[in-house]
Model the fold of this input.
Amino acid sequence: MLKVFIPNNHQPERKYTLSILFEKLLNINLSVETYEDNQQSIIQLPNGKKIHLLDDFFSKQKDSYLELENIPERPVFLINDLTSENNLPVLWGKNSIEINNDSIHIKADIIASAFYFLSRWEETVADKKDALGRFPDEQAFLIKHNLNMRPLVNEYAYFLMNCLEKLGYNQPTKSRHYTLIPTHDVDKFSRLDSFSKAIKVVAGDVIKRKNIRLALSTFKNYIGIKKGTQKDPFDNFEYLMSLADKANTKALFFFIPGKLGENDVYYNISNEKVQQSIALILSKGHSVGIHPSMDSFLNKEQLSQEIDRLSQCGVKVSSGRQHYLRYQLPETWEIWESLNLTDNYGMSYHNTPGFRCGIANSFPAFNVKTKQVLNLNLHPTIIMEQALFKHCPSLNDFKETCRQLKNTCKKYNGEFVFLWHPENINLPEWKAYKEILESLYH
Ligand SMILES: [Zn+2]
Done:
């Protein structure tokens, strides 16, 4: 147990961040008290030694800090021997640390910086949105400063643990384990389930892909599906479940509970074949969650209706990800919580790989408007195959980025959540990536 003394302002924010850094990431229990000092937080070890953490943000703010101008232009890099990388970037404070026998004084504001990434308040104050109303990747502080490949909050926790050990902290801590979580948004269910669809694909093979052999094989595939001897190219549920089984983990499949004719909906959730696939996934011990449709991200009534539709398929709906990663924060999270959804996998960049929340683990969401911790766990998605493809068109860069991010998650005993759409696996342009997909499971 560590005693922590915090300044008497912005307590919900400070307590939330300390609980993630120490209790979640380091498995160290805290007792937090407030005191009348606005300059620093103090962590007191059982042996009486102390870590002083400079407060360079919250104590300077009035009640609300939710202003775009509060975001600094560039990071400050703390450089010393106790960090896991060559430097430790923060948003506030300075590059200064003093190490004595019975105390360490850290002048970089780690608490406010960790809170910035975890709470996503930069998204709430952003003045630019993309065409779908989403927070654009290029507005993210981590992307602007090329830090998206680093889980900085994990680095902060690692650094704080080293500081504790330097001062003689030697209590046993439970260690966390690396977890692999493959997730699959089912945007489309079948490619060749009707003659008209098959003809369109064949025409695409000839005109767009200029490949007559491919066109013939598509048509043969269509005949095989009709006879029941072949599978639809989008039907990769068993393949993905077998990969997850071999890696001793569970695959999560998120279905759009829509009806044909609704915005960006390509299958009926009530279709018999869709229902059979859902039943198969559940019978094999894997999970089914919700992929709420395009228009649901600010519409509680619609999301509620979609949850009902998926529940009618025998699914206990608790987890998922918004289609097109369409979020407005904190409103979309509030709607999820109010409908008793508990696990959200949507915190992923749209066009870039890496850590959108600066962390490689799941953690509870914080509502910056009500200053409350939400009953909603966020599981940041580190790789989405389509985003990575836009970022790294070369197969080798794609492969290397996957390897790097997976190893980073392993290094910090994180949760490696990736998203791979089942419908892409057998498409001609994605075939070469199948080997990379399989490498993610090792
Ligand atoms: Zn989707």
The first strand starts at residue 2 and ends at 7. The chain has three domains: 2-166, 179-188+233-439, 192-231. The chain is about 35% helix and 20% strand.
